[in-house]
Amino acid sequence: MASAGKFDGVDFSQVDIQHLTPELRQLGQGFRCVRGEFVTYWKQGRIQREADAHLCQCWIVRVQDALVGYITLLADKLQVENTLLVQEGVKYRTFPAVKIGLLAVDRRTKGLGIRLVEWAIDYVITEVTPIIGVRFITVDALYDSEVEPAYDVSGFYEKLGFEFADPNETLPPAHPYRTMYLDLKVLIEALALEKRDEDQV
């Protein structure tokens, strides 16, 4: 739960999301996240190194000179046991996808995690799918069984429409995460319809 203080009164549903540039890399002092490793990744330069190596792209949210959240996106593939698209005549079990790699927000914010995921969905639909085949967004939802109670972020993604790649996976999972996906087709088609209507005006 967000604690009162530093970011009181900030409407995070309206904040700007900025692509990480060299001049923004000094941000991060005072960044507090429920999961400390996400603070460490930033402060030790992991995010910047991976972006420089073209392994991901990173976008941030700041309030003045304070980092309050970041999200990384990278190429991925979704592998499933069931033929998800068989009703569409597609029998593949592996599909192109964009992955939410890391999502971290300051624990004193409210609604910023949702804002970043919704922004990422919109970004993929408007900027990526028009130029390359991408049907799904994936995420490896962290599951930490070494704390009590177990830390399981999958519920956050379920509320945003994500589904489990393996809905029958036993807990705790073999890896400290559970792969989830969001099918973008309905949103892609809605955007195409909206653009068609605009063109006819």
Descriptive account of the structure:
With 201 residues, this protein is an alpha+beta fold. It has a single domain, classed as Gcn5-related N-acetyltransferase (GNAT) (Aminopeptidase), CATH 3.40.630. The protein is 27% helix and 27% strand. The chain contains five helices and eight strands; from the N terminus they run βααβββαββαββα. A hairpin with a 2-residue loop joins strand 2 (57-63) and strand 3 (66-79). It is globular and about 50 Å long. 25% of the residues are buried. The mean pLDDT is 92.
Count helical runs: 5
**In sequence order, what are the helices and strands, one letter per element?**
EHHEEEHEEHEEH
CATH architecture field: 3-Layer(aba) Sandwich
Task: Please state the structural category.
Answer: alpha+beta
- Shape designation: globular
Report the biggest beta sheet as strand number plus sense, adding barrel if it closes.
Answer: 8 strands, mixed
CATH superfamily: Gcn5-related N-acetyltransferase (GNAT)
Q: What is the total number of structural domains?
A: 1
Q: Supply Rg.
A: 18 Å
- Terminal residue distance: 46 Å
As for the CATH topology, it is Aminopeptidase
Overall pLDDT level: 92
Helical coverage, percent range: 25-40%
Unreliable spans: none
